[in-house]
Amino acid sequence: MTLTLRSSTSFINLKDTKSPKTPDHDQFTGTICFAQTKPSCRIRVIKSSMKLEAQLSLEKTTVNGAEGYWGNDHHDHEKREKLHALSSGGHNQDGNDSRVPVFVMLPLDTITHGGNLNKPRAMNASLMALKSAGVEGVMVDAWWGLVEKDGPRRYNWEGYAELVQMVQKHGLKLQVVMSFHQCGGNVGDSCSIPLPPWVLEEISKNPELVYTDRSGRRNPEYISLGCDSLPVLRGRTPIQVYSDYMRSFRDRFRDFLGDVIMEIQVGMGPCGELRYPSYPESNGTWRFPGIGEFQCYDKYMRASLQAAAEAMGKKDWGTSGPHDCGQYNQFPEDTGFFRRDGTWNSEYAHFFLEWYSGKLLEHGDRILASAEGVFRGTGAKLSGKVAGIHWHYRTRSHAAELTAGYYNTRHHDGYLPIARMLGKHGVVLNFTCMEMKDGEQPGNASSSPQGLVRQVKMATRRARIELAGENALERYDASAYGQVLETSRSDSGNGLCAFTYLRMNKRLFEQENWRHLVHFVKSMSEGGRNTKLSDSDSSGTNLYVGFIKEKTLKNTKEVALV
């Protein structure tokens, strides 16, 4: 019996070689095939009776080279750091521990709409390969829209339980994202997973439950933070719903927390990031590098703005957001608000931006306080993700960051308050765009991902919290890996305590891409030193990689597990 894996856009597809009546588990053998890239390669996992022996052999390939909102609370911070200590290792705040563990994100559709593990045989083989490459573990989204889709408090964790056991079997660790957002409509989304049907039913009854822009466009990606504390979800508040969900996860996987499941990333907005959905790609609403739009026009947000303005004695300021802030795809200089000498630096703008960003901070604070209570004593680290909005960073107003909820301008640090809020709960700040270089960005975007990363590193250092990283876009080249290696060091600000690579798919296992990953993981394990991977190296992988001539396989790359 043979099992063949073929490539797909979202995962490694199985070629069905069984009869319709043959159960899946009876069809497993050791041969796996991926889409051909020249030249082809064979990967063999070589086992001894005691352990995997490693040999890597490659031919003809080279590697190219509201501050004050949270207080200082230092003693409580230290207690939380000890409580959530990550036993797998990483940087401390001073960067003395040089090893940076690497995780790999699993496909978005790892769990099917039916709640089962997607293509378990392919997953098993892939995890075996990742373990052999030296990665620390993998990351998976625990989708609210899948787990609680059958009704309030009706949770189905079975597919995730199968994955956890498989990860444990391979000696890997797991990062789990509490994904309270929809999948679909953003960069890299390859499948569609909406919010739970019963939640969508409530939204259809009351469209004000979701974020809304100035023109009245509703965004169903995530429940508006404006109703965080209101019982709008069948008698429960959104925060209560998120808390119950996390508590159910904790109870189901209690025996694995702190051992296999090392980290819980708490989703706090679109794409799991602490931000507003200011740049939605769905239906062509936004295109890079547009400035985006403020998302404060549902009735709950408007009521909050009005109350804040009245408390300031400026009732007129509470009627709306800025009137001259443009549209999604405009540039800062096209607007009266964001242009170089625009009204973004006025007294009114300071009030509005403090309120808008402050509401986001309060939202994160509420969710993380709940998560901290749920996971206290489990040994699992908590993390929260912040978006890497690098376009228009070189301008004075930082328009794209402002519409997303980060009050970061030439005169105001928007990331230190976020870092301090996370630090209040002992949470790691997970930041994206670690792979990007300024010189790679289009000139009209006024972009500086490197400058942005430096600022965030300094903010986490000042707040005395840990920093973890991700790449924002799928990259497989040595240049991107090299930039992450550079960023991982602690020469300026914090070094990284961990890095999660986006994402596992068919391309990752192609010859040159796989070689770059092995090299990268090895370098990160050595503190970010960009050591050259030799043509024959056995220290970085348990996989034997050698090229074979195509005779009978023709256009198939074979990966044989023996």
TrEMBL record:
Please give the biological process terms from Gene Ontology that the record holds. Answer: polysaccharide catabolic process
Could you tell me what reaction this enzyme catalyses?
A: Hydrolysis of (1->4)-alpha-D-glucosidic linkages in polysaccharides so as to remove successive maltose units from the non-reducing ends of the chains
**Can you tell me which residues bind substrate?**
D141, H181, D189, K385, H390, T432, N471, A472, R503
Mind telling me which InterPro entries this protein's record contains? Answer: GH, Glyco_hydro_14, Glyco_hydro_14_CS, Glyco_hydro_14B_pln
Q: Where is the active site?
A: E273 (proton donor), E470 (proton acceptor)
| Known EC number | 3.2.1.2
Short name of one Pfam family for this protein? Glyco_hydro_14
Which molecular-function annotation in GO is an example for this chain? Answer: beta-amylase activity
Query: SUPFAM superfamilies annotated for this entry?
Result: (Trans)glycosidases (SSF51445)
- Which superkingdom, per the lineage? Eukaryota
What are the UniProt keywords, alphabetically?
Carbohydrate metabolism, Glycosidase, Hydrolase, Polysaccharide degradation
Entry's PANTHER family? BETA-AMYLASE 1, CHLOROPLASTIC, BETA-AMYLASE 3, CHLOROPLASTIC
Q: What family does the entry list?
A: Belongs to the glycosyl hydrolase 14 family.
Q: What is this protein called?
A: Beta-amylase
Q: Which organism is it from?
A: Juglans regia
